[in-house]
Amino acid sequence: MKISHRITRLATAGIIAGALAAPAATARPAGPDTPGEPVVIEPDPAPLVQSVDDGLDWASAAIGAGAAGGLILLIGVGGTTYRHRHEHIGIAR
């Protein structure tokens, strides 16, 4: 219970500090419009983008799957050895 109150207090303090550190918006009235000719801005033509799709890279997928499987195996073995090591600790009869 104490941890959740500590987290709540820290989050609240962080939000308050962020709000105080953020610069205030500066607004000023717009100047009067000057009469004259309208300005026309022509956009530059967009560059041509060519898409290349080679499909799924199976070598990268195999490396990722092997790494994930190895990590799961390592965590599983570590968990079982930790449990077995701490099961026999107790009061001697």
Please describe the structure with a list of short key phrases separated by commas or semicolons:
93 residues; mainly alpha; 2 helices; flat
Structure report:
- This protein is 54% helix and 0% strand.
- It has 93 residues and is mainly alpha-helical.
- It is flat.
* Strand portion: under 5%
Helices and strands, in order, run as: HH
Q: Could you tell me the radius of gyration in angstroms?
A: 31 Å
Shape: flat
The percentage helix is: 40-55%
- Unreliable sequence segments: none
Figure out the total of helices.
2
Q: How many E-type strands? A: 0
Question: What is the rounded distance between the termini?
Answer: 37 Å
Mean pLDDT: 77
The chain-level structural class is mainly alpha
Task: Characterize the biggest β-sheet.
Answer: none
